[in-house]
Amino acid sequence: MVNVNIREITLLDADSSRTILEKISFTLHPGNIYCLIGKNGSGKTTLLKSLTSLHNKNIFDVAGEVFFKGTNILPMNDDYLESLRQKYVKYVFQDSVSSFNPLKKLEYYFDLPGIDQNMLFRQLKALMLPTGNIIGKMYPYEISGGMAQRFSIALALSAKPLLLLLDEPNSGIDYALSNLISNALKSYAAESNSAVLIITQDISFAENTGNYLGFINKNSFTGFFSRSDFFTETGSNAELNNFIEAYKSI
Amino acid sequence: MNILTVENIRYTVYPSPGEAKDILRNISFNVNDKSICGISGESGSGKTTLAKIIAGHLTPSSGTVNINAAKRNNIPPVQMLFQNTGDILNPFRKIFDVIKEAAALTGEPNPESETEKLLDMIKLSPKLWNNRGYQLSGGEQQRAALARLLAVKPKLLILDEPFAAQDVESQVNLISLLTEVKKQFDLTIMCISHNIRILKNLADKIIVMKDGGIVESGDNPEILFNPKHSYTQLLIKAENYSLNDEELKSLL
Question: In this complex, is the C-beta atom of A238 within 8 Å of any C-beta atom belonging to chain B?
Fold first, then answer.
């Protein structure tokens, strides 16, 4: 279980500072997928990064607590955080291609600590990627953006993290791949001990993937509601209604 | 009248000696003057390659592209907005100057006021006119890049995935901007998008591509209500996240 209580995230500027997010509290339970919906520039990625202190501390100041296995991890030093991320937390970045080392073939990642290779090969198959023998011999720049995205997800899942964070896993890819990723995440969450937190601007991806949905906009967060309650519970949120209207109109 | 006629285009690449691969094959279609033609299909279906051939950036291995519009001051009548829009804005130059320079190329007697008109139209705040491209957000860069293309008064504008990585509100705004631009400039637009749902709101005609060929084309919205090809049916179903693994396999 992960308890998050962020009082405020401030953007530090040379001569002034600006609050970009405030009062965000939620708890993530294992075996569930939480989808956080928000527009461009609403602070989604900043929030996701700050959960494991990956945010740039020269630019952002995060006030609050994130309890992971009972310990507030935000004030911890880099060594502690690094080992925590290695063992328990996996983060799939939006720009997957550049999260790989361009000088290493992809098989390099097969042997990283914590990777269950059998699970990895199963996930490669589930995500309809080439088998380990083939994709392992390729360099990151030899695969397409959609393949890199799926490979990152397969790697993250095969580390069986307690907390899995995904930043817009379906942005810039087509709907078929989006379906595939949604299905893979759902079957993973159902049989694992992971809490999965996804940020997305795609309402229909969120609705079809998440057990719990929440909406974030500049200074407000609706909180997470179960998929069946989300739209009724948040019916009075004008920003969300505008967002849904725009979504329905196209 | 057709502004664009594409006949039997084939585009072959040679990944290794002796190995040939057709990226495009048997592509024939035409586009009516002053209409919007949407091109959809999965990643890797050859949409961008086709667009680059029409824009003259690539030469087809065989087949012809006929554009029924003349060059003005030696400027091609087809202009293409690439996916990484920011790249066409010179980082050392101010937005206003970049667009003014393009407007002057057409022999426009008053490029300054033309630039102001264009920047107003794309709704770029005057505060940003003297900024450089990298100082703008992704959406602002895209609109500025569009203004630069419009400054040379093209007849056919090709847009490559203009809606990717945008949130829905920006997508709605861009749809209305494009509709407005088309009306004011008497333009024909070809818009590539893997998102058929967006094309539904924009295009007069939709072409669906798969593995380098056209599987189906037709008028909007008939093609979406009554798709004949199983691939188009699956594409539409995919947008509702209602595909099972078997159906996914046939798509990927």
Answer: no
Q: A-B interface: how many C-beta pairs under 8 angstroms?
A: 81
Contacting residues of B for A145, CB less than 8 Å apart: 43
Please judge whether B169 and A208 are an interchain contact, meaning their C-beta atoms are less than 8 angstroms apart.
no
- The total of other beta-carbon atoms located within 10 Å of residue B240's CB is 12
Q: What pTM was estimated for this model as a whole? A: 0.82
B170/A176 Cβ within 8 A: no
Torsion from C-alpha of A91, A96, A97, A103, nearest 10 degrees: 10
What number of helices (H) and strands (E) belong to chain A?
9, 11
A185 touches chain B (CB under 8 A): no
Closest CA to A100 of A157, A142, A161: A142
Q: What is the ipTM of this complex?
A: 0.71
B182, B34 in Cβ contact below 8 A?
yes
- DSSP secondary structure of chain B: -EEEEEEEEEEEEEEETTEEEEEEEEEEEEEETT-EEEEEE-TTSSHHHHHHHHTTSS--SEEEEEE-S--BTTB-SEEEE-SSGGGGS-TTSBHHHHHHHHHHHTT-S-HHHHHHHHHHHTT--GGGTTSBGGGS-HHHHHHHHHHHHHHT--SEEEEESTTTT--HHHHHHHHHHHHHHHHHHT-EEEEE-S-HHHHHTT-SEEEEEETTEEEEEEETTHHHHS--SHHHHHHHHHTTT---HHHHHHH-
Dump pLDDT digits (tens) for A52-82.
888 888 888 888 889 988 889 988 999 999 9
State the nearest Cα–Cα gap between B53 and chain A, in angstroms: 21
For residue A6, how many C-alpha atoms fall within 13 Å in the half-sphere facing its CB? Answer: 28
Contacts 24+ apart (CB under 8 A), A187-192: A187/A126, A188/A123, A188/A157, A189/A31, A189/A32, A189/A33, A190/A31, A192/A30, A192/A31, A192/A157, A192/A160
Q: Which two tokens stand for residue B3?
A: 């502004």
pLDDT at position A206, please? 94
pLDDT, tens only, B145-176:
999 999 999 999 999 999 887 888 889 999 99
Report in angstroms the alpha-carbon separations of B116 from B68, B87, B113, B181, B233.
Answer: 30, 22, 5, 15, 45
